[in-house]
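user: can you give me the structure for this one chain? tokens are fine.
assistant: on it. calling the predictor now.
[tool input]
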Amino acid sequence: MNFIQLRSLRHLLCFLTGAVLTGLAGHASDATLIAAVRAADEERVAATKSGDLARLTAIYSKDLHYAHSNGKIDTKASYVESLTKRTTIYEKYDYQSREFRVAGPGIVLMTGRALIQSSGASGLQKNDLNFLAVWREEKGEWRFLAWQSCKNPPAETAKK
């Protein structure tokens, strides 16, 4: 190998090393973002169960669109009101699965399945839900932007 070929090979290796390290840094930053959103979601669940106005106001986006599995749609104002006035009380919130995916700058999608128990005017509700949630970074903080869920059929119906 002559000097020019060796120099070209060295440049290629430097370029490839940089590309690999940049790719790894991208994965690390995705992992960091997902860890932050996971922590924000833990706070959202705790705030939702507690009905604490300050916590709810802090975690939900002003643009919240919350589509319940029964078809009811809430905004931030209507949802926070139902939680703080305890017209809806979330008693249990158990994730069966929960996955996060960075969808673009400042947007993380959360999908999964949850067993949720709540009570309200219609009595005790036990729901087995599949869901799609959207988290958005707003002024450096992760805010819960949207929720859409659907009920899973009872086990005996699912077998048919």
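assistant: here you go. The helical segments are 3-50, 53-59, 76-84, 155-159. The first strand starts at residue 60 and ends at 67.
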